[in-house]
Amino acid sequence: xxxxHLVLLVVEDDEKLARSMGRxxxxxxxxxxxxxxxxxxxxxxxxxxPDAAILDVHLSDGSGLxxxxxxxxxxxxxxxxxxxxxxxxxxRQRAERLGxxxxxxxxxxxxxxxxxxxxxxxxxxxxxxxAGGTG
Length: 135
Known about the structure:
The chain has a single domain, classed as Response regulator (Rossmann fold, 3-Layer(aba) Sandwich), CATH 3.40.50. It has 5 helices and 7 strands. The protein has helices spanning about 15-25, 40-45, 65-75, 90-95, 110-120; strands at about 5-10, 30-35, 50-55, 60, 60-65, 80-85, 100-105. The longest helix has 12 residues, at about 15-25.
């Protein structure tokens, strides 16, 4: 049986952080689709719905929460993790209303992100890679 790779949409406008996160998650068996803008995320979502999304809130052209709202309006109930330096009550409340699996304040430790992602994804007959390592 062929391996099944879960697809993650990562929306992060910090290029260095996005590359680092993408590499970390790819090494653990995920297919990672990196985009830096809301427009890029919406374009990618027009092609396919990922298995999960990791979203920065403040983007150069909008918000990761707007991306999540688009997903929800389209009927997608995929797990979404918000990562942001903005820990304001308004942002947290909007994220909660949109049903995020987790709200993480940057900086985020990679292993913490992986653990939360693994908990948020539905049970699968295809085991996820272990969280092991350092981070």
